[in-house]
Design goal:
306 residues, OB fold (Dihydrolipoamide Acetyltransferase, E2P), globular
Length: 306
């Protein structure tokens, strides 16, 4: 953004990308994106996702140093876009101040993905993680207490060296009892040259497969329970893609899939859907891992109207 001409060139490049690939998801980085954050909303975007490798350490390499918390405070104060979702963040990087900010936010989505990896302290030590089972559990409890609608997800690795049945059961019990609503499960796969690959106590593939299946079944059950809590409530859903078109009398309706602010997958029936539209609908039960809803005409939201 050295000159206005450079800004114009940047806008033209973005528009050209949109014309050539209308279905593609565009990510804009660099000086223009950093100095013109409000342009996201002006271009019709309603949600931005903060993502990166080890996002919780954001700003520590800047001069002067800053933090993810300070960035989130700035987003809350300026509201450059209707809603912002924070991607995966490690447990030790979610401070009490961040919990309070999420609890009172009008911008930040009540959804956090906090990797656990293992629900046993000895396995966490072998993984060289910087938190304990008790700390993870306490954090999830505080988030659920402060933000009743919050959706919490996590990552779990099964079959890490020395994970015997007792240690696996510790993980299963933690995930069963903690307010975690879905988890991504990965069987441990040794990588050549790493300390974990050279450890004794490697877990047989058949055991890893069985343990992964148990955790995935638990995740499905907890996800279903979480969705059921919101049946009958009104939710704001960001439409992403059309799944089906049907005729209803003289009207043509389409089913669009999208997500609520707290990461509920919703199939919305609407006569005027488009990617990026925000709608409000009353949630209904639906088979297949999602909820259903019908667009309430005239109730769609825009960033300017909130």
């Amino acid at each position: 953004t050295v000159t206005d001409r450079a800004d114009l060139d940047s806008r033209n490049l973005i528009r050209r990308a949109e014309r050539r690939n209308p279905e593609a998801f565009k990510i804009v980085t660099g000086c223009y994106a950093q100095t013109k954050p409000g342009a996201l909303s002006e271009r019709g975007f309603r949600e931005a996702v903060l993502t990166g490798i080890h996002i919780g350490t954001y700003g520590q390499d800047r001069t002067p140093a800053t933090s993810l918390l300070e960035l989130l405070k700035a987003i809350e104060a300026t509201r450059p876009i209707h809603r912002v979702r924070v991607s995966s963040i490690d447990p030790e990087e979610v401070s009490e101040a961040m919990v309070e900010l999420f609890a009172g936010s009008k911008v930040l989505c009540p959804h956090l993905h906090i990797p656990l990896q293992a629900g046993d302290d000895e396995i966490l030590r072998l993984m060289r993680r910087r938190y304990t089972v008790a700390e993870f559990s306490a954090l999830c409890g505080r988030l659920a207490a402060k933000i009743p609608r919050v959706c919490l997800g996590t990552d779990v690795i099964v079959g890490f060296p020395y994970e015997d049945e007792a240690r696996f059961e510790n993980t299963h019990a933690l995930l069963r009892d903690a307010p975690v609503h879905y988890f991504h499960v990965f069987p441990f796969s040794p990588k050549r040259g790493t300390k974990a690959a050279q450890m004794l106590g490697q877990v047989p593939a058949t055991v890893k497969k069985a343990h992964a299946a148990r955790l995935r079944a638990l995740s499905e059950a907890k996800s279903s329970q979480f969705r059921a809590r919101f049946v009958g409530e009104v939710a704001e859903v960001l439409l992403e893609r059309a799944e089906d078109v049907c005729q209803n009398g003289g009207h043509s309706e389409a089913v669009w899939t999208g997500f609520s602010e707290n990461y509920l997958p919703v199939a919305v029936t609407t006569e005027s859907g488009f990617s990026g539209k925000l709608v409000r609908c009353r949630l209904e039960a639906k088979e297949g891992g999602s909820l259903a809803g019908k667009d309430q005409p005239g109730r769609e939201k825009t960033a300017e109207g909130l």
